Amino acid sequence: MPFLTRRRKKGLVSVLLALFALTAVEIEPTAANTIFFEDDFETCNYSKYADVAFNQIDRTISHSGQCSSKIGGNGIDFGKLIVRLPGSQAELWFRAFVLFPSNFQLPVNSGGVHVGIHLWRFSNLDIQLDFNVPAGTDTIQLFHWPGSTGGEAVAPSTGFNPIAGGRRGRWQCWEVHSRLNQPGQKDGLVEFFADGNLVGSVSGSLRGNSTASYTLVDVQSNIGGAGAVPPWPRDNWWYIDDVVVSTGRVGCPPNVTDNTPPNPPGGLRINVP
Length: 273
Ligand SMILES: [Ca+2]
Known about the structure:
With 273 residues, this protein is mainly beta. It has a single domain (35-264), classed as Jelly Rolls, CATH 2.60.120. The protein contains one helix and 16 strands. The strands form three sheets. Strands 1, 3, 5, 7, 11, 12, 13 and 15 form an eight-stranded antiparallel β-sheet that branches. Strands 2-6-14-8-9-10 form a six-stranded antiparallel β-sheet, with no helix packed on it. The protein starts with 5 loop residues before the first helix and ends with a strand. Bound molecules: calcium ion. Calcium ion (CA) binds at residues 40-42, 62-65, 67-68, 241.
């Protein structure tokens, strides 16, 4: 630029540097994944929970360490492990390892009695996402109830049977993601991943025009019980371990499928490193 004096060149460089600095400031850093809650159950008690029902610490089967949590899928011992979130959260990821023993039975068709396997739930005691196996079915359902928000009730089956296809008797890594819609939009999303693979999702207006968001997570709920129905056995436990609740996807440790143990023989502990 021969027409510029040295002073003008210096000024131009300063302007370019200032523009670069402005551009650099405008690049937002990637938001860190905030973990709201995690539990490997190695306190071997329920001291982390705001409310507990019939859940039991188990010392014979665990994905990590010495302990896990079990709850009877029998329609009697309804459970809850309630965690209060910090404030209201419109988006949650839930990662857990679950195990259904080789003799586990899914809910029978109860002829009108409401019995189902309720796995976990996000809620604010109005809206709720209930991750469950409904009575009389053998597949997981993503049930979002809009409460008083005016949103849509959605309850698609994922077609995923938790004890079919060699899943019985081994630890599975399950992740559930819920993102409530922007008020007035239909961009809400619920997704379910098993061992890293997307197996079901639903989108829509989950909360209508409302800004209502989740304030509670029920880590191991099984709250659909209303009396045992033969031949659903009284001794019918499912297990959970290594729970993480966060703003972003946590994922599963690598080779989780390869590291899973065989079906548990009675009386022996399972301890996957
Ligand atoms: Ca553990």
